[in-house]
Amino acid sequence: MKTAVVLLNLGGPDRPESVKRFLFNLFNDPLIIRLPGFLRTPLAWLISTRRNKEAQAIYSEIGGKSPILEITTAQAEALSTKLAAHGMDNQVFVSMRYWHPMTDEVVQKVKAYNPDHVFLLPLYPQYSTTTSKSSLDIWLKESKKQSLKVPTKYACCYPTNKKLIEAHSQLIQKQILEVKNKKIRILFSAHSLPVSIIKSGDPYQWQVQQTVLSIMNRIKGAEDHVLCYQSKVTPVKWLEPSTPDEIKKAVQDDVAIIIVPIAFVSDHSETLVELDIEYKNLAEEMGSKDYYRIEALNINEMFIEGLKDLVLESQEVRVTKNISAKICPKTFKECYHNFNE
What we know:
Largest sheet: 4 strands, parallel
Shape: globular
Radius of gyration: 20 Å
């Protein structure tokens, strides 16, 4: 029995010339900019054109491209090795939403592999319509278009997966032990979203909160923590408090800052540039000598073990589609359990 596991991720430009098209694909997603196509497409073109130089400058800080494909590929290889060691005949594919390898390409590859089962695994532990739903929806649509008629299951979210929490906790705890003679504040930094999306019933913020609570239940030596948000890109109201504002407060309060990329499982521009360069410089310019960034999970063995467990669970559970338990309160009508069930 052959299983195709598909890791779903955002993607990123692979060279400076790709930046504009990547941005266009991102902003032309109807789940990112929620306007009719005749309005959204020209707006996406305008935004991508205006942001192109700024974005290229950001990527130039890390070699002119995003490392997300290489990291996700490494995650796929590590996961496949663990599954094979468990006796599973498998191949793990990488499918990116906004840059290559994109969904249509990967559906073709999976079809050629001719598996008995497909399992879709978003690399977004916390579900959002802007990430997980977008990736899952386009996969299911493209599979139908290409007649990939194979039993398919997926996990819409896993914000409190035991090994995900353990992986984060171990990294944070190690850093806490290395901070000497200083009070500590942990800043859990997540990608922000427009408040309007949350108000529409998207459970992302609530799920990130559950991840943070689960981690803090395991942490010793640092009770002071804040969930904050980064990467606001439009002038509408976004989730707050902002990570830069919380960094300023922490410096003013004379506490050591341990910053955790809580909604990212792989390094990319928002960790390597925003957290490691821009926000670190902000803290240092204000006089802080105690700014520590916890590494993204990347190929952390405990994290990969957690992914392996999800794949194995998909083989065992009797449900035909979504293996994730419904954890979101009923108020979140955009929970994926309300779709495709």
